[in-house]
Amino acid sequence: MKKIAFILGALLIALNIAVVKQSLHNDAEMAYKPAPVEDVISPKVAAKAATTAPEQPQAKAEKPKPPSTKASQPLTCREAIDQVWPTALRDGAKIVLEHENRSEDPHAVGGVNPDEYQSRDYGCFQINDYWHPAYFSGGDWQDPKWAAEYALQIYQGRQASEGNGWRAWYAVEGILW
User: Fold this and answer.
1) Distances (CA, A) of 136 to 126, 127, 163
2) Pairwise CA distance, residues 175 & 141, whole Å
3) Which backbone phi and psi does 163 adopt, to 5 degrees?
4) pLDDT in tens, 112-131
5) In angstroms, rounded to a whole number, what is the distance separating the alpha carbons of residues 138 and 70?
6) Which helix (H) or strand (E) segment is 127 a member of?
7) pLDDT digits over 78-93, tens only?
């Protein structure tokens, strides 16, 4: 009787191991594979968005307005995050700031990227000039508030299209995604 119980126990353990392995294998096969950045936002789409008004305004993600021209105390990148980003996302935005723009300088200009477009990244969030022409035509890229508003727009767009808004910034891979 003990032998039968032992054999049944061993079979149940082996079966559970097989089920777990199959589950892990299926999870690995179905792991998230991001769409190429060209499928998420193309230069033509971005340029069109910069030059034409949307037909219907979106309820949740409004296009950021250019910052006001009123004389005020200049904001730091961190202060702009605190003013613009929702509370639940502020810590993540500050991590992006720290890893993308190491000096937290709103006037930072990155080196030429090793891409075919010879693009560069600018401002608090190091937003790319090739993929985001609206960032430069819609406001002052050196203004921390404008940068925070535009970065939030990028986050929301990536969140809607891929389910992970932080994927827009490769410097936080392994930290936020």
Assistant:
1) 12, 10, 26
2) 26
3) 85, 5
4) 999 999 999 999 999 999 99
5) 17
6) strand 127-128
7) 999 999 999 999 999 9
